[in-house]
Amino acid sequence: MLMLVGRRWLSSGLARRALHRNPHEMTLFEMLGCTNLRKSTPEDYRILREIVNSFERHSGVGNDIQLTLEEHTANELIMCEKKREYEKGIMDPSKFAPGHHFFQVLNKVKNSPLFQILRKMPKGAALKTHDTSMCSSKVVIEMTYRENLWVYTTQAGCRIMAFRFAKEKPKDVEHEDGEWQPMEKLREFRGEENLKNYLRVRLSMYPLASFSTNAHAWRHMIGIFNLLDGLLQYAPLWGDYYYNALKEFYADGVQYLEVRTILPELYCLDGSRLPKRETVRIYKDTLERFKKENPGFIGSKLIYAPIRHVQPEVVGQYVKECTELNKEFPDFVIGFDLVGQEDVGHPLSKFAEELLKLPDHINFYFSAGQTNWYGSHVDQNLLDAIVLGTKRISHGYSITKHPVLMRLAKYLNIALEVCPVSNQVLQLGSDYRSHPAATLIAENVPMVISSGNPGYWRAAPLSHDIYMAFLGIAPMNADLKFLKRTAKNSIRYSSLWDEGKAEAMEKWKKEWDEWIGDIVAQKEKVFKKEKN
Amino acid sequence: MLMLVGRRWLSSGLARRALHRNPHEMTLFEMLGCTNLRKSTPEDYRILREIVNSFERHSGVGNDIQLTLEEHTANELIMCEKKREYEKGIMDPSKFAPGHHFFQVLNKVKNSPLFQILRKMPKGAALKTHDTSMCSSKVVIEMTYRENLWVYTTQAGCRIMAFRFAKEKPKDVEHEDGEWQPMEKLREFRGEENLKNYLRVRLSMYPLASFSTNAHAWRHMIGIFNLLDGLLQYAPLWGDYYYNALKEFYADGVQYLEVRTILPELYCLDGSRLPKRETVRIYKDTLERFKKENPGFIGSKLIYAPIRHVQPEVVGQYVKECTELNKEFPDFVIGFDLVGQEDVGHPLSKFAEELLKLPDHINFYFSAGQTNWYGSHVDQNLLDAIVLGTKRISHGYSITKHPVLMRLAKYLNIALEVCPVSNQVLQLGSDYRSHPAATLIAENVPMVISSGNPGYWRAAPLSHDIYMAFLGIAPMNADLKFLKRTAKNSIRYSSLWDEGKAEAMEKWKKEWDEWIGDIVAQKEKVFKKEKN
Predict the structure, then answer these.
(1) Rounded CA separation B157/B181 (Å)
(2) pTM, to two decimals
(3) DSSP β-bridge partners for residue A303
(4) Chain B residues inside the 8 Å CB shell of A438
(5) In chain B, at which end, N or C, are there fewer CB atoms within 10 A of the end residue's CB?
(6) Which residue from B352, B374, B473 is facing A438, i.e. has the nearest CB?
(7) What was the ipTM of the complex prediction?
């Protein structure tokens, strides 16, 4: 970098003071020494400014990416659209989508030309998804048309509390005014369109753009998970949901998924439960079917991720289950995590002894640091995740408050799974421009962009998170190099083995090149139009 | 630090792999080497956890402070109150004051026992204050009772647009329905209490806890500055306002102030204007008077800080004025800055050539990085402030997105003036727990806590900012060491010369020891009560 300013720099006053050794080996700090910058000439100032600026420019995420000639051309169009939105935002901040709550700008973003481009971008992998929050509510609502579905309502049919597939009317009644009825009866009673609209709201965090606290937001989200249990844990549906998730993600440019799953024991029409291994088997069969039908798709793997709100001995049980399942599905059940709101659960440290019993070829992918309680025992999960040898960290929202841990993550090549929209919906931050991942980007800490539970906020499987990260979190000049690094990282930090990664990269590259070609063609079309 | 875990560490597996050299000289990274942490035994895990934790604990702001026995005792009471609020917050986040907008918790905070303690804390210096936003509105409202005050209203007297002191009714009328009338007449017309209440709102950002954007918030704030011009720039009042500011700050535990002032040419009753040097003279005379009456007070200095929204040649003129004023008041007009909303002004780089003409014994104290437009030309002010050799940075809100600059600030010992409440009111962030200063604290970047324009948000001169920083931004375990480092920093990074600093430190220490003594006495009283 010093080469850039070579001659001028060497002739400057600042440089003369520092020339006791080869300047090409010097750090910026050594160069500066105890320089009093107020003694600078305007020339000194300009040179030093350029050096520091250059250090900055060449240190963030994507700085190592080389663009091809075609990519350069595509980059121009992308940056033209990005700058248009950015500069309009500076002129009138109320028009800048990443300055608002996602729910309020969802429709606006759909019309953004930048979003249109990003939507088609081959994004590589989505490494943080959860078993029953991946699909759009459209898919879920369609599932409520299946045979033998009963629905439990309160408030004279106004509020849906549970679903269940059964031959006969279920008998358990938890609420005074609760009653079970066939789904088709409720549909008739409330009207099909009304019920659809109701479910669209009931299965999402809408319209609550603002909860009073993140605890409140979490409770609401857990309520959706719970409601879906009775519907999706029905054995014949579990695979269908997963199939639709793969379909929707693939359509959004995602070729590979790692799913954190609680691996429920699925139930049958007679109420009996299947063992967990059957749940995995359904996943695996569904995936094989999907891959056969979609040869461009790379694949998917499972991270066993049961609920964290338990005692250590239960975690011990989880670890055993994971070990067994991995023995049976060695290249499919490949990791372990604990999920649920960190703030109200036990810290990882409490489970350390049990966790360390997991064979070390099964990776940890710990959720940690999804909190703003700096220095609380919850916040310490970040420390434990790293010291326990995690391969990635889900969220790690608070890591910029822990520079020692942030540097360790970088040193140990632990990638952070950043989920911008999730963090906003769950009330950790209100404006994407203040998201801490900006610091991760600047520090070039390993990171991937993921989505968490996109189905619950009506987001595209991954495109909205990419859009918010690219426009709202990354610096203005972050460009195609940033996007390419992000996509490549998602494969690099996946649990694929080296050969698998090579193959994945090839499949991704094929789609990427096509996408670039399309943008270039689009640009040429616009250019020709303007010329005529 | 390694000493702490010495024996155990040396016997662990991790250590054995790293023992090719003296472990006391090793960095954490060298120790870890290419260790696979998944090979750890529970013992390894526990040791490494302790080491990393210890690194963290001993690296933040305040880690270098040694507490006396008395301070230890006081610390226990302070931490007891802090933990009470913190833990109540974790249980029910809606009860945690730093999670809300300041305007909504102002009254609640007043009753906080922790706030009561912090209010009395000798805080050292307030290094970022602005000439006409220091005093409470009470002081300003009292000033509207002075003789010869005219008021310009619109909407049939309902909206106050301007003040002016004059013998006769002013003639300029800017609005169709605007009219000048004597202040006492308006007071009679609207009723004294009504008018007071109106002014309390008109002279603050209340009740607008939420503006649509920070641009909107800025416009509102500039409106207050403008309204006050006609009142406070009246020569006989200028000194009184400053005197009252010193009084209110001193009562809040602040013994030294650096005031950024636009140095207006004050006007007299006949409309004539005095030269800027008279404005400085009034400041100086007032300060002398205040110091004589308050021997415990340390002092105050001026930073000439005119508006940044001008052309370079005007900045050239500013620089000349500053040089002249410094010649006449060498130990009083000691620094230079440019103020006003950065987002809409010119970047510092545009003025570099002119700025570098300022003699280098007059320090720069640049406002920079008060933006969330990462990578915009505005954001580059941070880079320019540092490369131009600034001594401190006012706000620097965006610096955590610029690790190269953050490290330079640390290396060059440039302190950031962090103003938590201001950042929230001006819409840079909504929750103190997400304030970027947490990273500055963790990285031990030089910083002081200041308040900006406390009068406009009904905040105490400095106590509320200290409270929010201590409870909301710093980690849970930040304690008296943090507070003491913050207070000491405010003197250390002031523009006082070395002898001045020694004297200041002595005056501060005297009050500090008294405060500690009071807390210890209070604790003993409580202890005795509990015993009986």
Answers:
(1) 9
(2) 0.94
(3) A260, A335
(4) 374, 400-401
(5) C
(6) B374
(7) 0.92
